[in-house]
Amino acid sequence: LIGRLVMVGPSPRYVDEGDYVGGFTAPQIEELLASLSANYVAWSHAMAPVIAGNPDRPEVQGELAEAFCRMDPAIAEVFARTTFLSDARDVLPRVTAPTVVLQCAEDVIAPREVGEYVARAIPDATLVLLRHGVTANTQRKLFCGRGGSDPGLVAEGESQAARAAAWIARHHDVDAIVASPLRRTQETAGFVARETGLEVAVDDGVEEAAFGDWDGHGFGDIMERWPEEMSAWLASTSVAPPGGESFDEVQERVREARDRILADHAGETVVVVSHVTPIKLMTRLALDGPMSIIHRMELAPASITTIAWWPDGTPSLRGFSIVPE
């Protein structure tokens, strides 16, 4: 029934409990409710400025105080007691609609920690797409896909992978790691595994495109030796390099890999260590753009692209080609 949700300063639980920060201790809530019960009008005038904020706009505080005072005190007390003592944290994992949580940085009723908790608790599968670090072929700008020479990372690539892995560990609670079987992605995934303590699963669906006869050659060399084939390849994503895969073919296996990963890791954060083509195509799927859009994306080595997928299938692109410093 609800297609989209926008939660403004939400709080499923106002009382601190264990590691959960609700913003109030239990005695503070009891004191607040006792003061409301003892003198509702005085409570309204005292609380309105605190809740409204905006000290430079007293008229807003006055309007809120008047709104409080128009309410039946008995009803207000039941409402306040129900609101401040309820615990709806168990409901959040059942939210299936795409949701945006808007949290004020200076909300005295629902602090920032509450908004962050709500955002984490509402299920969405987040794919953190990590391109591998540089190889000798990357440095020389050579085509390098599945079925090719399969080079490993050079020292610069290892440093890039280490920085990216540390960044991911700081910014995400990672539940799983999935990587292409090629050597450079396996080595990059190894850095993430060491940072997170997780094992690396392999999925052929996120392997780089097969470039066939072009593998190991640079763009200029290919234009010299295969000018007609290169022109056709650039003109249409349905055209494959000689002995290789078309982007349309790669798109289908990337789509299948995405569906597989989302089904296996519903509500989890998964680091997917892959290559330029699969990550661009995964991004295209999220944006629902034309295939030609992949030619307008530049994906840096060891960069991070983050896409959240809601239970109803709606995607949200949250970052593209971010290179950790």
Describe the structure.
With about 325 residues, the protein is α/β, with parallel strands linked by helices. Helices cover about 45% and strands about 15% of the residues. It has helices spanning about 25-40, 40-50, 60-70, 75-85, 110-120, 135-140, 155-170, 185-195, 220-225, 225-235, 245-265, 275-285; strands at about 5-10, 100, 125-130, 175-180, 200, 270-275, 305-310, 315-320. The strands form 2 sheets. It has a 6-stranded mixed beta sheet with strand order 5-4-6-3-7-8, with helices on both faces. A two-stranded parallel ribbon has the order 1-2. The longest helix has 18 residues, at about 245-265. The mean pLDDT is about 95.
Rounded average pLDDT: 93
How helical, in percent, are the residues? 40-55%
Name the overall outline.
elongated
Strand content: 5-15%
What is the helix tally? Answer: 12
Structural class of the secondary elements?
Answer: alpha/beta
Widest β-sheet, arrangement of strands: 5-4-6-3-7-8
Quote the distance from N terminus to C terminus. Answer: 44 Å
Radius of gyration: 26 Å
Uncertain ranges:
none
Task: Map the helices and strands.
Blueprint: E1 5-8, H1 26-38, H2 40-52, H3 58-70, H4 73-85, E2 99-102, H5 112-121, E3 125-131, H6 136-139, H7 155-171, E4 176-179, H8 183-196, E5 200-202, H9 219-225, H10 227-235, H11 247-264, E6 269-274, H12 276-287, E7 304-309, E8 315-322
Parallel strand pairs: 1-2, 3-6, 4-5, 4-6
Antiparallel strand pairs: 3-7, 7-8
